[in-house]
User: Which sequence fits this backbone?
C-alpha cells in the first residue's frame, strides 16, 4: 500500500509540471505572430508549439488514467475519496486546456493573418526595406521547412514512445490483476482440497459404520431366528409330552375299568379333570417351560 501512495504523489508532481508547461505552450501559441507584426522573427514555429501542447495533453491524459487505476488501491477510504475528487479536478482542467488550445490557435491564425497583411503592404511599397524583407522571408522559409520536418518526425517518435509506455503500463496492470486472481484461485483450491479430504474421511467412516450396522443387524436377526426356533421346538416338545401323558392316563384308566376296579365314593371323573399321575421331576420342568 505504501508503494501506491508514493505512486499517487509522484503522479501529482508530474501533473503540476506538465500542466504548467502546457499552459506556457498554449500562451506561446496565442502570442504567435505578434513578433512578425513588430518586425521580429518567431523562435519556434506554430506547428512545433502545437506539437508540444499536444504532447503535454497526452501526458496529462496518461496521468489521469494512472490515477484512476491507483485510487481504488489506496489503504483508507478518505484517501480514495480525495484521489477521486482530485481526478475530477484534473478532468476539468484537461478539458479547459483543450478549449484554451483551440482558442489560442484561432488567435495565432488571426495574428498571422494580420502580420501577412502588413508584410504584403510593405512588399508592395517597394524600396530597400522591401528587398531585405523578401530575402529574409525566403531564407526563413527554407529553415522553417527543415525545422518543421525534423520537429514533426521527433514529435511522432515521442508520441509512439508515449503510446508504448501506456501499453506497457496497461499490460503490467493486467498482469498484476491476473496474478491476484491466480493467488485467489490457489487459496480457494487449497480450501476445497482440505474440504474434499475431510469429506473423503467422513465417507470412509460412514461406510465402515454401515458395514458394522449391517453385521449387527444380521447377527441380531440370526439370534432372533434361533430364539424363535428354540421356543417353537420347546413348545412342540411340551405338547408331545402332554399328549403322551394324556394317552398314558387314559390307558391306565381303561385298564382299571377292565379289571373291575371301582372308583372311590365321592369322586366323579370328568373329562376336564386330570388325575394325579407320577411324572418325573425332569419332565415337570419341561412342562413348566
Assistant:
Amino acid at each position: 500500500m505504501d508503494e501506491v501512495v508514493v505512486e499517487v504523489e509522484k503522479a501529482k508532481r508530474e501533473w503540476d509540471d506538465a500542466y504548467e508547461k502546457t499552459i506556457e505552450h498554449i500562451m506561446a501559441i496565442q502570442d504567435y505572430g505578434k513578433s512578425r507584426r513588430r518586425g521580429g522573427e518567431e523562435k519556434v514555429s506554430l506547428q512545433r508549439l502545437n506539437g508540444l501542447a499536444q504532447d503535454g495533453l497526452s501526458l496529462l491524459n496518461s496521468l489521469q488514467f494512472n490515477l484512476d487505476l491507483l485510487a481504488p488501491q489506496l489503504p483508507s477510504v478518505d484517501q480514495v475519496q480525495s484521489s477521486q475528487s482530485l481526478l475530477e479536478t484534473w478532468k476539468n482542467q484537461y478539458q479547459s486546456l483543450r478549449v484554451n488550445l483551440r482558442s489560442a490557435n484561432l488567435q495565432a491564425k488571426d495574428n498571422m493573418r494580420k502580420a501577412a497583411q502588413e508584410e504584403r503592404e510593405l512588399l508592395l511599397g517597394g524600396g530597400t526595406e522591401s528587398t531585405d524583407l523578401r530575402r529574409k522571408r525566403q531564407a526563413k522559409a527554407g529553415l522553417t521547412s527543415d525545422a518543421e520536418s525534423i520537429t514533426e518526425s521527433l514529435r511522432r517518435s515521442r508520441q509512439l514512445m508515449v503510446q508504448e509506455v501506456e501499453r506497457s503500463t496497461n499490460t503490467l496492470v493486467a498482469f498484476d490483476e491476473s496474478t491476484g486472481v491466480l493467488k485467489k484461485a490457489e487459496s480457494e483450491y487449497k480450501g476445497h482440497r482440505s474440504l474434499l479430504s475431510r469429506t473423503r474421511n467422513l465417507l470412509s467412516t460412514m461406510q465402515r459404520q454401515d458395514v458394522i450396522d449391517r453385521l449387527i443387524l444380521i447377527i441380531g436377526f440370526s439370534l432372533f431366528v434361533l430364539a424363535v426356533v428354540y421356543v417353537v421346538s420347546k413348545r412342540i416338545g411340551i405338547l408331545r409330552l402332554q399328549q403322551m401323558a394324556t394317552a398314558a392316563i387314559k390307558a391306565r384308566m381303561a385298564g382299571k375299568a377292565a379289571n373291575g376296579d371301582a372308583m372311590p365314593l365321592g369322586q366323579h371323573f370328568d373329562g376336564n379333570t386330570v388325575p394325579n399321575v407320577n411324572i418325573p421331576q425332569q419332565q415337570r420342568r419341561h412342562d413348566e417351560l
Observations:
- Residues 62 and 166 are 7 Å apart (CA to CA).
- The chain has six helices and no strands.
